[in-house]
Amino acid sequence: MVKTERQRYVRFRLFSERPVNADVKELAQAIWRQYNSLFGEVKSGKAGFWITDYDVKSREGTIRCSNTVLDELVASLTLITTINDIEVAIDTIKTSGIHKKLPPVEST
Question: Alpha-carbon dihedral of residues 4, 102, 83, 91, nearest 10 degrees?
Fold first, then answer.
């Protein structure tokens, strides 16, 4: 019997003392860099996670990933320290198997 990979959604918030003018592409590059340095190129090639939504003003977003890499993704998110030479911290708010069950992104 073949097990199918189920999708998981991770809601996260970006914290920094100064404003971070990072768009989705720069944020994704920082996540991929950290994930690649932790788990290597072979594992990061199979990870397959995507930023589904991100609000620059509230600094909140959602990442879709497979259930097999969820713990590794959360670990790599917490270890990100800089984006665009600005010190940041990323906190995971909630994980869910259904995107609708996540709290909405607060746009301020």
Answer: -100
